[in-house]
Amino acid sequence: MKGLVFKDLITELHELRRMAVFLLVFAFGMPILFSASSGDWSDVYGMPLTMCSVLGMVIINNAFAYDEKSGWMQYALVNPVSRMQYYHAKLLTHAINTITGSVLGLAVSSLLAAVTGQMTLSLFGQLLAQAGATAAALCLIGIWIIPLFLKYGVQKGTFMVMLIFIGVAILCTGLVMISFGSMANPFAEGAPLWTPILLVLIVLGSFVTLYLLGRKWMGEKEF
Amino acid sequence: MEFAVEVKNVTKKYKRFTLSDVSFAVPQGSIMGLIGENGAGKSTAFKAMLNLLRKDAGEVLFWGKPLEDKDTELKARIGVAFDAICFAEILTVKQVGNIGKMTYSNWDAPRFQELVTRFELPEKAEIKTLSKGMKMKLNLAFAMSHNAELLILDEPTAGLDPIARDELLDLFLEFVQDENHSILISSHITTDLEKVADYITFINKGKVAFSKEKDVLLYQHGIVRCGEKDFQLVKEKGCIAWRKNDCNYEILVEDRQSILRAFPHLVVDHASIDEIMLLTVKGERA
Question: Which of A72, A83, A223 minimises the CB distance to B87?
């Protein structure tokens, strides 16, 4: 499994070099540009963090694209690697990517705050919490992405991820609408307890279902 | 006799093709050549052996044990090279070696280095910059650097020049010097197999046409070239297949010696693997 993760990481690192300009523009340029144009600098420190985290999430596409092109998966499975190890290695790679993206984002955001003389302990605490939450959320989204990419490939898989995302969003919105009669914050004080519980169950259910489907698809995959 | 791999009655059905009841066995310490035209089922047989597709029937035993997906120890005893390199083209030769080191607990880094040097593979070059022959050599270097006892090679010499092919064939012969080592190799280049293989298995339209010792095959089989009158006589005596050329017949016979004894006036040449394959596939049958 180490070899699989290592292979993915060096492939992604290669791509990251190509994406360096893109990363620079999105992590540094865009937040500064947005803040300068709106005159609101309050969120300038959070944006690089989000951008880097999202880049960390999407870079797994490159690893899958190279795998598809070279026929790596079938070769990996004739090495001392089981199908489940392959599946879990992809999930692990994705987790490493998103955590690295968030850590990098945290560093960039902190640097930006330090350079502009705005860094305080409280701001760092906020950024740290945001980095943790983003990394955790994006890691979980990997449980949607990986099975669908394994089953449908990168192109169709990306489309399927969006479908799942929209499906879950519609379900959750529908539930809130039914509970409150209009859009409202289901986590607000005084709201009935069953709504947030159901919302969490829907989201967690989608993760568990996709994870189990991923295991099934991987076990049945033929080459 | 101990077998490195035994394929028993393997069947895999597709809509337009069926690998039907395929059986053969590779004795330990030998090289078996798998031959057949394109689409005959060689690659499907390999994939069925390696659990890359689900078999509809039959079993495959490696050293007497079925290959389970989770049995990574058994998998580590097998080295595989497909007909195209399966590493991302942006990886370098050195990085491929590092992947091997991280994947195999029994990775032999000095052996990989030795093969890279022997094949003159530039370590820092990305795979996409390598020629087809070099890519295949890298494939083989990877498959042969973890002390595998069985090599399964799908068309390893395809697209290589005669010198590179000869170099690889020497390497295969070196590999089986150790009696515990065996090779199963598919190839269209039957002359290569004539040089190195101990056994030949011929798959035609998804079925095993024959699986025999190469020397027996080449010694026993013969090609009779004769006219219409002799053709009828030889046909009655027993032949596998025949083909009519402009004014004579080419007849593939299974027992060259008996035909020679029965028809001393006829010329019965030794049959090459190519001729056996060609006449079996394209020839007419009784």
Answer: A72
Q: In what order do the strands lie in the sheet with B150-154?
A: B78-81, B150-154, B182-186, B31-35, B199-204, B207-213
Chain B residues inside the 8 Å CB shell of A2: 102-103
Residue A138 is encoded by which pair of tokens?
């994006």
Q: Is residue B41 helix, strand or coil? A: coil
Interface contact flag, B89 A69, Cβ < 8 Å:
yes
Q: A2 to chain B: nearest residue by CA?
A: B102
Q: Which residues of A touch B128 (CB under 8 A)?
A: none
Distance between CA atoms of residues B116 and B112, nearest Å = 6
Query: What type of residue sits at position B242?
Result: W
Q: Which of B69, B80, B89 to mutate to test the interface with A (most CBs of A within 10 A)?
A: B69
Domain count, chain A: 1
Range of the domain at A110: 2-220
- Do A82 and B70 make contact, defined as CB atoms within 8 angstroms? yes
Q: What's the CA gap between B115 and B239, in Å, rounded?
A: 46
Flag whether residue B15 sits within 8 Å of chain A, measured between CB atoms. Answer: no
B3-214 has which fold?
Answer: Rossmann fold (3.40.50)
Question: Residues A40-76, buried b or exposed e (16+ Cβ, 10 A)?
Answer: eeeebbbbbbbbbbbbbbebbbbbbbbbeebebbbbb
CA end-to-end span of chain B = 35
Per-residue pLDDT of chain A (223 residues; tens, 9 = 90+): 889 999 999 998 888 877 777 777 776 777 778 777 877 766 677 778 888 888 888 889 889 999 999 999 999 999 999 999 999 999 999 999 999 999 988 998 888 888 877 788 888 898 899 999 999 999 999 999 999 999 999 999 999 999 999 999 999 888 888 877 777 777 777 777 788 888 889 999 999 999 999 999 999 999 9
Q: How far apart are CA B81 and CA B138, in angstroms?
A: 10
Would the pTM of this model clear 0.95, i.e. be above it? no
Give me the torsion for CA of A87, A88, A91, A96, rounded to 10°.
Answer: -140
